[in-house]
Amino acid sequence: MKNNNYTGSTLISLFLHALLIGLLLWGADFTMHKPETGGNTIQAVVVDPAMINQQAKQIREQREAAKRAEQERKKRLEQQTEALEKQRKAEAERVRQLKADKLKAEKEAREAEEQRKLVAEQQKQAAEEKRKAEEAAKVAKAQAAKAEAERKAKQEAAEKAEQVRQQKLAEQRKAEEASRKAEQERQKQIAAKKKAEEEAAKAEAKRKEAEAKRLEAERKAAEAKKKAEAEAKRKAAEAKKLEQQKEAALNDMFAGLEAENEQRGGARGQHIADEVARYGAIYKQMIQQNLLVDQSFKGQECNLTMRLSADGLVLDVTQNGGDGALCRAAKSAVVKVSQFPMPDDPDVVKKLRDIKLAVTPQ
């Protein structure tokens, strides 16, 4: 495109010089006259300085116009290059942000899993505490039953002793002493039973506390899981909205470029071809940078056809011919790249969405 503009400027300059020389020659009289015998005459050719100045001025103005046109073309080219670089940086930032969001979501998932394991461990400990409390309650109940049985047995013995005391006055003092001791023992049994009942009540309270802790842990785990799911949905919605906004902005930009392209005339086709070739070279370089080269690939070639989306994502890649092993490695390299840069020009994008490339190891 650049060479064509330089050639046009050179042709315009040569044409203007030729026109000036033609006008000068047209104003001069080169007709041959035979000498007249009557005397010597001198014919002079008059060149109008105003006309020459006017023609020179026109040439200068045309040169200036060509120069300004060249500057405008360079300026438009620089703007297109800058826009392409901005788009590339924006795409790189978007990919980096998506990767960061993915890592964060994975981290949150791991944390939720750790929280779930912690809750499970707490539930296990609560169940163990509940089991121990129930066992303690059973032991306390058994001890209370034993104490009650002993108390009844001793009470029966006291009653029997009282009967013996009635029967044997001689043994009255001994029986009274035995009765007193039996009463003391009964009081001890009553105290033991009361203590056992208190311990059973404490064990039941511990069981209820462990059950409450288990229920609270389950509630916190459910809240944490619900919060993580809601956050993941919100981030996915934000990412989708951002993608839609970017696509709308690109569509507006492509519509403006299409209107401008219609005014460029025959040079438009050449520009598209140059851009397609330039981006094809970039794609080949990106593929070769990710290509795992083997010694057997030396001197081989692989012909690929890539089908891309409007934003450069790889939709499909097929082999059109060439070395099979090299083509498999080239396909793997395309998958590693996954997304290729795209220009702002929709016509160039249309050509690049179905592009054929010849890959050769460097």
From TrEMBL:
Family matches, as InterPro entries: Tol-Pal_TolA
Record region (Disordered): 65-89, 141-229
Signal sequence interval, chain numbering: none
Pfam families: TolA (PF06519)
Gene3D superfamilies with a match to the protein in the record: 3.30.1150.10
Biased amino acid composition, Basic and acidic residues: 147-229
Identification of the protein by name: Cell envelope integrity protein TolA
Origin species: Photobacterium leiognathi
Gene: tolA
